Fold:
Amino acid sequence: MARDITEPEVVFRTEGVTKVYDTGEVKVYALAGVDLELRESELTVLLGASGSGKSTLLNILGGLDHATSGRVWFKQLELTKMNDRALTRFRRDYVGFIFQFYNLVASLSARENVALVTDIAPDPMPAEEALEIVGLGHRMDHFPAEMSGGEQQRVAIARAIAKRPQVLLCDEPTGALDSKTGVQVLEALDRINREFGTTTAVITHAAEIRKMAHRVIRFQDGKIASTEFNETRLHPHEIDW
Amino acid sequence: MRALEKKLFRDFLRLWAQGLAIALVLACGVSIFLMSFGMFTALTDTRAAYYERNRFADVFATLRRAPKSLAPQIAAIEGVFAIETRVTGSAILDLPGKLQGAVGQFISVPVSGEPHLNVPLLRSGRYPDPQASGEVMVNEPFAQANGYVPGDVIHANLNGSLRPLTITGTALSPEFIYTIGPGDMMPDNEGFGILWMSEPALAAAFDMAGAFNDVGLQLTRGANVDQVLDALDDLLDPYGAQGAHDRAMQQSNAFIDGELKQLQSMAYVLPPVFFGITVFLVNMVIGRIVALERSEIGLLKALGYSDMEISLHYLALAGLIALVGVAAGFAVGTWLSRALAVLYAGFFNFPYLIFSVSADVYIISGALGLGTAMAGAIRSALSAARLPPAVAMSPPAPPNYKHSLFDRFLTLLRLTQPTMMILRNIARWPLRAGLTALGIALAVAVLVASSFFEDALGEMIETSFYKSNRQDAMLILTREVPESAIEEIRRLPGVLQVEGVQFHGAVLKNGHREKRVAIEGRPEMADLARIVGDKGQVVAAPKNGILLSERLAWQLDVGPGDLLEVEFLTGLRETHQIPVAGVITSYIGLAAYMEIGALDALMRRSARLGMANLSLDEAQKDEFHAEVKNLPGLAGTVMLGDTLASFEETIEQNITISTIIYMAVAVLITVGVTYNSARIQLSERARDLASLRILGFTRSEVSYILIGETALLALLAQPLGWLLGAGLATAMVAGFESDLYSIPLVLNRGTFAWSSVVVLIAAAVSALLVRRRLDNLNLIEVMKTRE
Ligand SMILES: Nc1ncnc2c1ncn2[C@@H]1O[C@H](COP(=O)(O)OP(=O)(O)OP(=O)(O)O)[C@@H](O)[C@H]1O
Ligand SMILES: [Mg+2]
Structure:
């Protein structure tokens, strides 16, 4: 590869990661040997057909799931050697998650949903500030049921960034949204990546979104089919899908 | 407050109705435990302290007359620490301004001043002067009931003459915590008094100079009670002793023991039922919440919350419910304890009321309540902790409805789809359905058992008063008199019928089994006090043989035709072999009957009587009372009409209170179980039901599916409830049975019907509350939410 050691530090590194689901009758190879590197401050987009293993990989990177074999490092920490308690600690301290179905706690307001994270993170920003960043400063006391899908997803982003995570892992953050609302969400992610330099990985089915990434990884049958780099990145509002 | 805590409180508030329904069931358990266990401890401690401080005797014996020179021999028995010999006797009291005489139990006070044992606790005034012959100290309840203060004068018919007695003071005694007069069924403080009088004066009145007829012993620690009793019997037998006994047979003590036993069985039986139901309900509700919040649990884990924090979150939810339940339980339990303390104050005479429930009882019952809720929640809380975050985020697999044999059977029945849905759901969650039905059945059982009690007491009154003891009055004589006295009594004003009766203390023996009882001799075909058989038939007093009450026959393990060894403690103190003539029903005491003449024959003497049963002309009652007061040789009178009235009044009050309490309890259980189970159904099937509504099913068709299951389970629960109730009633009969009294097992159809009606109404109301929620279901909301 034509990149030298002045390149940013590696944040995630995997070596031959597999994930096998043994459903009794058949073995499903969700991941069949994945080697990859994600670097500091990069925004990576993961593409691939449904069932190709994207979510599985993201969950393993985020310490939500265990690999069947292979090794995973987060900086100097080897995640594949850690037990559940240590993984919980890892998630609490370093990782921000965003999911397709916003996953807000229905009985908590926007501000309180963010506070769920700021309550336990070591060095969080105020919940209000996080909500301002995603443009929801005026909706802080609304409950999830009182917000649109896009607004809810932005609350989820605010919640993910409020702890000042080192990495932001997003599984189809725009999957449940129309493209216009999706753009607002992507803009929030893009802004955080640019302003805070947060390493970000985004899974999506909308191939156009790859245009805003530094790095694009394509998945196929549990393996990485290709990796490409964008020399120039588009702004989310320039993207249409 | 942290966000997770806010979620906790909001969830709790959102669940308030379900939580409250559970909390109230828990509150029942906590309050009953608090009351019964608290009162048990309070009563035990109070009694122990009182006995200790006032040196309540360990061994008691009464006899006809023994010289005081016997006392040192008694004191020399191994194991005896202290001895007190006394003169006791009873006499009719003539109370100023009262037509009807009262009964006085006289007890001597030694010349030296205070007694050594069974020390009365002075409440007002002073002890009677040892030198004075006309002074008495009376028990405080008697003084209060009659409004006496020191200085007042009453009269007693002592040795055939009416003597004025000045009240010098009032006192309470550990011997008379429960004070009941001879032949009475209830304490009657107005009509029965304890009178302490100086020994010389009392001995003169009862012909006991230089002698005693009552002895109490205090034993050394670790003394062998049985050996002491035997040794004492050996010493006293020649003096007409009735057989020595320990505290267990001391009347006042035995009544408190009975009460303690009831409190204890209440503490052991009822609360576990409520705690069990609470565990089930908490388990059901928290289980459902954890299922509903699957994705939120996954999210919290993804955010970095630990398994522990998540488990605690759900345990805390159960904890909040428990907190409400325990608080309500404390409030109600405290109130119940107060009410019971007031009730106790009415018939137990303690000098100090340590009837407050101690702090540890609160701590124990609170911990039990909390522990119960935790036990119910722990399974779900752990499953929440175990849920792998990645799995939690994905929707759960659809529930697994399998085609089973039961299913094929259902298909054969050609039921409508809604009915199929109901039956399939029951078959899918058989344990839950079973426990729901069991919970409702327990509510029915509680009502059956409480309503049975009323019928049982009714039956007891019917048998004891209307069938058996039909006399208007009983005259208890100080000693047995020749039969000719019957004629004298008949001449008293208003007397219509007289029947003589006699009592003989005796030990009945069959092999190693033996029992001390009083054998009652009655005329063969007595018309007033009749003996009633097990089928309600009148039974003749046997001339050749003895009739035993069921309990006594059971205790001695004898049946009709068996020979009993009867060792009389009276008269010639001979032992006879007497066949058991039959077994009869009796709810009060351990009854044993023989024909009165047959007893005289065994004693080899002419006809005598120790008590007379009378029927009276209502119109001449006043004259009768006025005459009876002056009758010499009378130890007491009992007016059965008064006894019955006070008995019925007491029962009436208690039954009303307990019916209300048990009804509330049953309703709480029913609501707790049905409301929660219907709410859970609604939550689980909201989407199904909303889809059906969208497909065009009407509201009532849809609610049929929801309510149908609950209704079906409630109906199935009824026969089970009757069965459990009958079992509970049988257990209660066994639990209440003692040598003092027993209650019959009476189960009417009405009892079952009433229990079912109450429970079904409560179930219907809870189901309708849930139906209202279903009617207000926002179809779009429900379909929109992802599950
Ligand atoms: N719990 C599981 N048990 C069995 N197989 C599973 C499980 N979870 C995922 N799989 C399988 O693993 C494979 C990869 O799944 P994954 O969720 O990673 O796919 P994906 O690329 O995220 O797909 P999509 O774009 O649809 O979200 C799929 O074939 C899936 O069926
Ligand atoms: Mg996926």
The longest helix of chain A spans residues 179-196. The longest strand of chain A covers residues 10-22. The interface with chain B takes residues 59, 62, 64-65, 84-85, 88-89, 91-93, 95, 97, 99, 101, 103, 105-108, 112-113, 115-117, 119-121, 159 of chain A (CB under 8 Å). Residues 41-66+84-238 of chain A form a domain with the Rossmann fold fold (CATH 3.40.50.300).
